[in-house]
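Notes, Module 5: Reading structure tokens.

Key idea: the token line is not a picture. It is a compressed description, and you learn to read it the same way you learned to read a sequence, by spotting repeated patterns. We will look at two proteins. The first is printed below with its tokens.
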Amino acid sequence: MNPTIELLKSHRSIRKFTDQKIPPELLRELIRAGQCAASSNHVQAYSVIHVIDPDNRRRIAELAGGQDYIAECADFLVFCADMRRSTDAAERAGAEVTRGMTEQLLVATIDASLMAQNVAIAAESEGLGLCYIGGIRNNPAEVSEILKLPEHVYPVFGMCLGYPDQTPEIKPRLPVEAILRQDYYADTRDEELVAGFDRTMNEYYRLRTGGNKDTTWSEQLKPLFTAKLRPHMREFLRKCGFEMK
């Protein structure tokens, strides 16, 4: 395998960091690398908030569910889907702009996600570790207020960055056969493949915790479809100007 593929396959979430600071010029280069990600129609519908203020980082850590590493990592970034800049630019150019379309929400969210993943890969290539923080969507209105986000901008997720102070095992992924279909969506083997992956994940959890965590991938999914549904997100997005028309 070439080094890029090996780097991608070695990804793991880091939640413990050393006290070493990230040089500002390196952080800037990571953002520049992020900007080189694909963008729908070159809209570049994202903004990144570099949260430096310690009080704000502690408040966001609490709002995200008590994730202390938000306050402890070297740098914390919030990736925002941003349709304000581009629609304002088109309007200044003379367009009769339509705002609040569902496609605009999708474009901005995808753009922000692709940009963030470029940042993540660039960071790991420099020996940094990272952890995505989807928990900021637990209280997105409060996070938006802290970050003073305008209309047509919403926080998609955060990212903790720093030099790793841990080396966790790489979490297994579903077998390729479970996600790669040829020509058509055929799920005839899904139950069999998921059952096998459940056994793999059970072994992973047991080894990682010294036998204290005896669960499977399927079991771990249950809260995502019962308790962690974030029903507030639709109304929050509508108030942000993403009316999903």
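Here is the second protein, with the sequence above and the tokens below, as before.
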Amino acid sequence: MADPEPESSSGFDERTRTEVQRRLEAVVRENRFTIAVVFPVIGAVTLVASAEGLLPGPLAYNPLLILFGTLVMRSPLIVGLLPKIGWWALGCLGVLTAYTYAIEIVGVRTDWPYGAFEYTIQLGPMLFGEVPLALPVFFIPLVLNAYLLTILVLEEWADSTIVRLCAAIVAVVAIDAVLDPAAVAIGFWEFVPPGPYYGVPLSNYLGWVISGTVAVVLVDLAFDREALLERVQTCEFILDDLVSFVLLWGGINVLYGNWIAAAVAGAFCLGLARTGRYDLAFVRTGLPTTGR
């Protein structure tokens, strides 16, 4: 009897990747409620306690805790997208990462395009002593969340490139309308002089239109939209990072009375509810719910 042909390395690699993906999805699925609800609630409490001077020095604004919590909350998005990230997508996201650093450094040094602002605490190691090294971890998932929610909610309207891109850009800017007021309130950064929108100048949002447009176009180029939409429709936890975002930053806005920002966070809750995967079963137990 002839010996069986040796298994190709590509086949082995593919099976290994599939098994790793399966295990990662199981971990996220089994801890879904903890990741999407418990972590952001604890994060909101500790950040507000840090801002109000209620935590001891080693715990207040602890950059390692902030980064760890952020990575945990990002995990459903990262794990959900992994099967769709090939070399082309990786290249586009690499360009977006470089762009993220570049425009933030330009913003800090020149006050353009966001207006004059500065980081008032260190969010981990700082690149050139000016911007957080983990900046892409903070920014790029916001764009991905906005884009994924957009194509899911728009349904057939997402077939139009103009409609899809414009709606996603609006969603990105809306995300910052939630994020920046809360971040200013807890002392992550500040604008000089403070602007009319809870300390945030309107120029900041013009800047986000610019940066958001570039980011959304790169994300749109990175993925095959039909394959991505199928993944978003079948992976029940892929938007849980957006749930975390709404709970964390929307909650902080409520605590500081930033009611317009809180209302925008509420609009994202409606968008998430529109997807049909967040119901009372998820709130009670964190068990997977059925998507559309």
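Summary for the second protein:
- Residues 9-285 form one domain.
- The chain has one domain: 9-285.
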